[in-house]
Amino acid sequence: MDLSTKKTYFLITGASKGIGKCMAIECCKKFVKNSLAVLVARSASGLEKTKNEIEQNNPQIKVKVIPMDLTKANSNDYDNLLSDSVGNCFGSDNFERAIIIHNVGSLGDVTCKAKDFNDNQKWSEYFHLNVFSVAALNSQFIKKFSKCEKIIINITSKCAIEPFNSLTFYCSGKAAREMYFRCLANEEAIDSKSNILVLNYSPGPVDTDMSLEIQNKSSDDNIKEVFGNMRAKKEILTPIQTTKKFIDVLEAKKFKSGDHIDYFD
Length: 265
Ligand SMILES: NC(=O)c1ccc[n+]([C@@H]2O[C@H](COP(=O)([O-])OP(=O)(O)OC[C@H]3O[C@@H](n4cnc5c(N)ncnc54)[C@H](OP(=O)(O)O)[C@@H]3O)[C@@H](O)[C@H]2O)c1
What we know:
Layout: E1 8-13, H1 18-30, E2 36-41, H2 44-57, E3 62-67, H3 75-90, E4 97-102, H4 120-144, E5 149-155, H5 168-189, E6 196-202, H6 209-217, H7 221-232, H8 239-252, E7 260-262
Parallel strand pairs: 1-2, 1-4, 2-3, 4-5, 5-6, 6-7
The protein binds NADP nicotinamide-adenine-dinucleotide phosphate.
């Protein structure tokens, strides 16, 4: 699959920093004239910086920033977001391909142990941002771009398939989120008319604010040490390393829809 062949609608959440920023910049280098990139996160200034870099690299595409807190966003908010981003001049039918990268993610509380998590409110807030809201946006995206080819990417983690001490919220959320995308891929696989491809991409340990937060705040000394050592020895990946691998994986398209592909696979 060549990302530079079709007029593309591209939406990425968590594009203000870290992995999402890098993925937005690198993917947008590929897109053809009149493609549209939509960048979502809370930090308007972070999104503007990503936008400026994209425009410098590829002045032929249009970039919209949507500063938004996804903590409590629902289906209606996402319907509006998609409609506003597409706008009158474009219209969703004008695109040949629509790509969404569900990159947004938070760690949750890493200072407690699993046995201590008894606050339903905290569980529900965590799951809203990391699972429910992702599924709601995804569903609206599929509706909005019903006619064209759709590529749906979930940024997942090894934590979706393996438990790690102190990362109870994170592991549980990533597992649920990945299973949602696997169910989606399974259902689409038996629909001969489906035009949806799903990839669960696990970026490996990457040098971002999130991995620094694990290193600084985890209640598990071993996890702290592992991240500390990786950082000290410069073994932790850079956003650009994992982004290049991600684009290679996507373009080579050797995975089955719904697969979990890790940086180290
Ligand atoms: N770093 C790693 O080692 C690693 C490993 C495996 C998987 N991942 C996954 O990769 C993805 C990106 O992680 P990262 O390391 O790049 O983290 P990061 O540097 O903390 O970036 C997270 C992004 O999500 C946005 N975000 C957070 N809360 C939000 C909210 N309530 N509403 C809207 N946007 C919000 C942040 O922007 P604002 O703050 O501007 O809102 C930021 O753009 C996550 O899904 C993470 O689970 C990371």
